[in-house]
Each structure stands twice: as C-alpha cells, then as structure tokens.
Amino acid sequence: MKQYIYFKQESQDPQPLEKSIFHTVRFHEMDVMQIVWHGHYVAMCEDARMVLGNAFGMGYKDFFDHGVLLPVRQMHLDYLAPLTYGHTYEVKARLFYTEAVRLNVDFTILDEQKKVMARGYSVQLLMDKNRQVLFERPAFYEKICQAWKKGQLQAK
Length: 156
Prior knowledge:
Order of helices and strands: EEEHHEEEEEEH
Strand order of the largest sheet: 3-6-7-8-5
Helix content: 10-25%
Structural class: alpha+beta
CATH superfamily: Hotdog Thioesterase
Number of helices: 3
CATH class: Alpha Beta
Shape: globular
Radius of gyration: 16 Å
Strand content: 25-35%
Number of domains: 1
Largest sheet: 5 strands, antiparallel
Distance between the termini: 29 Å
C-alpha cells in the first residue's frame, strides 16, 4: 500500500490520474496583508479539478448528462506559505481510485521552484438528480473506472 498525504492507495489500485493548471495571482485576489486571500485557494483547486475531470471524460457535464450530481462533501486545505501578487503557481490535482462511490482528489499548489505552498483534498459524493446518494457507480463511470484499473484510460 502506498500512503499519500491524504489518501492511501492499495497495491492493486491504479496510479492516480493527474492534471495541472497554472495560475498567475491577480490584484483582486489579494487581501489586506498583501497575500492571496485564503478563499481563493479553493477556486484554484476547483479549476484544476475541472481540468482533470474533463481530461478523462468525467467532468461535471459528463456526470450531469448521465443524471448525476457531484456535491462536495469535504474540503480541506493546509496553507504552508503565502501566494503573492504577480507570481505564477502550478495547481496540481490528482484523482485517486476507490471502490467507494465518491471522488477523492488531492491538490498541491507549487511555486516556480516547485516549493509546496499549499495542499489539500476534496471528497465528492455522487447523487441522482433527486439528491439521493448513489451506492453504485453509474454505468458510464464504472466503464471509466474499469479502463483505469486496466491501464487503458487515456486523457483526451
């Protein structure tokens, strides 16, 4: 079993799916201390999570088109160093395989020297359009998970 910071991975699990975005801090994201206001980190993570999902055919629209909603159940961030105006940061999102009917994503925000500035995770449940929690994967997502387990899932 490989232990990541937030999620463990069993030896038979496929490697996490990963995508990154790059974000340059804008003036309106600053707070009175002249660093990025803590709430903006969530938006950066969400942008990376959307790119990750879309790349592998499991973005919000893909789920919604199959009658599935993806509410966030948990969101956690560890702020390790401040982000500052004008600098560009990499926001890395990794989706971890799980047999549970949920999406486990961790995030790492890195500066230009690859120093970890922040990290965290989110857990999203799968619900039908009546807001009932699903206890089985929808067929389209099950197909994606099977391809992932076989090492056959490719980014678009």
